[in-house]
């Protein structure tokens, strides 16, 4: 530690646990630190120990009580040297004289450098940077000494300057703070000066240099905060021509209709717009102190044709809150003890073609008290008006982004299967982790922590990890489409499983205590899909293949001063990656494209084969008749220039002029 206060945390129940702090001396004979014994002293020298107990975690604070000011003449209770405190501390947590936890602190604290004496009123006058350079000699870096190669340094004598007079720093760093800029008329001597330079050059003195403009601030405009308001169509009649997939839903106030959703970082965003024809099911953690009201349910929604639809809201009360609320380990900070808040909100959008016909909302309310953590759930489902089967939402047999990937277990009597990833909470342990389905088109990474002892058998550890990873995949096949039938095997794709260990390779058994190699701690799920068509403009996406593989790691037991009666942690993860491939294999490159890459329009900025592209039927930026007329006019001008630049044209012109 380098400051007067340091905090640490004791994880677990603090009932019957005594904390003590001890100044640890060093054995003069061995030079090693002496291990302290259990005690009840909460003060050692100038150090105090304070413990703030909690439910499953206690905050331990170690603070220094002495003065850290440097000593003035005839002063006491101060620091005589800049390095004021150099001590070694030990913090012990014991129960019935049995050591539970041990913390070693090495304190090196310097005295405060703030000046407390008299301050002179003579202030250094700094010139205005807008009109005069602040530093006339930037290479003068050392006060009271001559800087080598800095010819503008006034502290360099003429004899010293002769040593490096021919190697002085140039430019602004060397003291030329007002160099002539390129636009000056006096700079015409520079190389490659264009012929039109005398007409556009600047007549100015070096005092008016553009380098001073770098220090000019000018007027400052107030930034405009981004708004969710978007301009609507101003055509007469209907305001909207309908929604397309992925378009944000608009309210009556010409704003986005928002519901809390998860961002790419995994955190919940309260003002995330709802996209048309995109389902989602998210869970957000909040407490009473940070809870914020969402969008009111009396907001009307634009149907897509300019009309506005009122939400049909049903309110229900949750009596069993155990699935939504967990106890918090932090201190209570809310102003009110309890509040009635929504635990879950389910939105169902009934749609037809490009319009929204009806919105049904079910809100589940419950009481949230201070010190509790609430897991809110928000679901959005789009149902086709002409479809009565909730499994066929869009009339599109393909997958849509955000929908669960269908799985089946063809080796069981009940063919229903599951393809999941972890959803951890609390301490992130695998024993308390739940699972959530894999959503189509969304790459994800999840994991949990497995507690492992120092005497763990490596073979047993590998089997335990594989068992927990395989529990996420209770399936042998994955549905090609969202409406795959369990009775038709052609609608399903078999999962390709790569064993974590090759049968030909010898897996090390791990003879070292607290170390196990080749632990399959990472599960990799790769799903290959493609666009095979479209239904009403919505892409028809199918899954082509699914592969499951494992990545191994080297596990080693991590411990502090003592490794007895403690456990280490092994993180295991599951990742999902969606890979999009073309529905048909790409056309192979010809030998001409391979050998003559300069004619390949996809790999070069200049594309000679498309020189006359504006004159072809493929160009749609302008009417073809206008393109043809402009092209012929350009060709005529090129031909005219070629004729007039020919020598015989000047002879013919001179003969006719005579």
From TrEMBL:
The processes (GO biological process) annotated in the record are:
cilium assembly; protein localization to ciliary transition zone; smoothened signaling pathway
> How is the quaternary structure described?
Part of the tectonic-like complex (also named B9 complex).
**Record protein name field:** TECT2 protein
What the entry lists under PANTHER family is as follows: TECTONIC FAMILY MEMBER (PTHR14611), TECTONIC-2 (PTHR14611:SF6)
Q: Which InterPro entries match?
A: TCTN1-3 (IPR040354), TCTN1-3_dom (IPR011677), TCTN1-3_N (IPR057724)
Task: List residues of the Tectonic-1-3 N-terminal domain.
Answer: 112-222
Organism this protein belongs to: Syrrhaptes paradoxus
| Pfam families given in the database record | DUF1619_N (PF25752), TCTN_DUF1619 (PF07773)
